[in-house]
Amino acid sequence: MPDNRNRIIPIASTVIILCVIITLIANLGRNSGGKTVTAGFIMNGDSDGSGWDTLHYEGLEKACRNLHVKLTVKQNVPWDSNDCLDAVRQLAKGGANLIVLSSMGYSNKLEKSLDRYKKITFYTVDSMLKAPNSRFYFLRIYQARYLAGIIAGLTTRTDRIGYIASMRSNEVNRGINAFTLGVRSVNPLASVCVSWTGDWNNRSTEQTAAHQLISRRNVDLLTYHQDDRFIADVAEEAGIWCIGYHIPLEKASPKYLTCISYDWSIVFDELLKKYIKETDSDKTVIWPGLEQGAVYLTRYSSDVSERARDAVLDAKMRILQGQDVFSGLIYDNHGVKRCDEQESISDAELLNQMNWFVEGVVFYDN
Questions:
Q1: pLDDT one-digit tens code per residue, 43-66
Q2: What is the pTM of this model?
Q3: What is the chain's alpha carbon radius of gyration, rounded to the nearest angstrom?
């Protein structure tokens, strides 16, 4: 009689492998808690650009993939239009359990509508949105801006640094202040000249503002708080220094000193885990920074001096040891003391009351 044992073993192995594959397929879209979770994402731009929206999307997509969360994306939804209301309706109809809003501009349109979607949790970068089903998340990008300010302060020769900013908000103001504190910590004579564009993403307005700062204010270094990198292109063409934001320029000259960047996947990993485990609440604030590796400066160019590199390293170590950017003696640009020697400005004020500017910030209206 033939011995079938050798045939039974590979057949059994094949059956086991098939069972494993079927189980994996069945669990796609399921989190570790066993229930299916669908995340919606509304973004102002698109996923294959070079700025804010692209990194936002990449971070969320990575976290969703790792945690087996289904992701549905609505791209090119203008922050200042009612299109976001339609996007929310479509995502809700499609079964979204949570919706991530990439632009703080969406809050104005959605604030009165969130109670219609009480079963959906909305995650927003706007700390001022206070709804029971909304949660705040962000990154401590201001810490990286402070480090970039140190480089700027030790690089400028005219002591005039241009800063192109979208519009006044706690987030944008916080970034301007942190950058200026970094500049002035190493170069008390330097000033940061801010030009407002009134928009998050407008090539023409941003580039006009940059050209005017160069020609009329004698700035020899530019940085910015905008969704894309149009300012960096102007700086490269003009042959002046630049500190970028988001994704660094490819094949840039040494004038492109470094880039302020970040990793959203660290935020979204924590955010999704809290949602899945049902441990978040309307008081939940997710705000990682240097300590978690969530914000950083990209590779330096050869124009960044050894002195600047050492100064940045020293400042980074101080932050990691607990001395945050907004601590110690700080005056605003009207001479009012905002923080004393042994004090630190609270997260609550940084998030919700940053309506003032530090000494060294000046404004230039186009």
A1: 988 888 778 999 999 999 999 999
A2: 0.89
A3: 24
